[in-house]
Amino acid sequence: MTELLTVPEAMAALKVSRWTLYNLIRSGELTSVLVGARCRRIPATALDAYITRLCEEAA
Q1: Residue 13, helix vs strand vs coil
Q2: pLDDT digit string, tens, across residues 15-27
């Protein structure tokens, strides 16, 4: 089972602001899921994939 991170946990992992994190979600660069009607969660695998893409683009 994939671990789901809260928005504050994902913000801390990436060291970005709430505004930046939600922009990444809105743009489709970072995948997220809704649990219920209002609980936004970011799969840990999505965070790993995003970081991997950043590293590949930088290389």
Answers
A1: helix
A2: 999 999 999 999 9
Residue pair 46/31 in contact by the 8 Å Cβ criterion: yes
Q: What count of residues does the chain have?
A: 59
Three-state secondary structure call for residue 16 = coil
Spell out where the chain has E strands.
Answer: 4-5, 33-35, 39-43
Domain ranges in the chain are: 4-58
Place of tokens 């695998």: 45
47 CB neighbour count, 10 Å cutoff: 19
Q: Choose among 34, 19, 33, 28: nearest CA to 50.
A: 28
The predicted structure's pLDDT at residue 2? 82
